[in-house]
Amino acid sequence: ARYKTKTVPDNGLCPVWNEEVKFHIINPDLACVKFIVQDVDMFGDSNIIGQNVIPLGERDEPTM
Q1: How far apart are CA 45 and CA 6, in angstroms?
Q2: Burial class (CB in 10 A: 0-12, 13-18, 19+), 24
Q3: Among the four 18, 25, 29, 39, which has the fewest Cβ within 10 Å?
Q4: Does the CA dihedral 53-57-61-63 come out positive or negative?
């Protein structure tokens, strides 16, 4: 599933969204959440300024 937060104007120095999101996760041991942070410039173009992937489950063995 995908979720996109609303754009917060003039929020680049110390960004805050204050949004709560809930997902139904079928297999949490294999699931990850990927965050992509974008900045919208003065022309309305989105530019990726950061991203991270966080595994949700606990695994005893590496996946690869």
Answers
A1: 15
A2: exposed
A3: 18
A4: negative
* Per-state percent for the chain, helix, strand, coil, to nearest 5: 0, 30, 70
Query: Hey, which residues does 13 pair with through a beta bridge?
Result: none
What is the Cα–Cα distance from 26 to 32, expressed in whole angstroms? 12
User: 48-56 — which CB contacts under 8 Å span 24+ positions?
Assistant: 55/31, 56/25, 56/28, 56/29, 56/31, 56/32
Q: Is the pTM of this model over 0.70?
A: no
Q: Give the Cα separation of 15 and 9 in Å (integer).
A: 10
